[in-house]
What does this fold into?
Amino acid sequence: MEELVKQNGNRSDNKLEKKHCPNSIFMYPVNEEEVISLTKSLKGKPTAGYDVIPESLAKQCIQLIKGPFAHIYNVLLNSGVFPDE
It folds into this structure.
C-alpha cells in the first residue's frame, strides 16, 4: 500500500489511482468484429475439431453466428469455467 501511495503522489482526494499490475491476467470481452476477423484467418478446413463445427462452415455463416460465438466466449471468460475439450 505504501508503495502504491508513493507511485500516485499526493492523495488529497483520498482515492487511489488504478495502476497496471504486471502479474495479473485481464482479458477484455470479445466483440463481434474480432470473431469475424479471427474466423476469416482460419484456413477453412472441411474437417471438424472437438466442437464438431468444420472451419469451412464457420467461415460460410460467420455473419449469422458472430453474436452467439462472442457471447459464449465472454461467458467462459467471465465465469472462468471452460470445457475439458
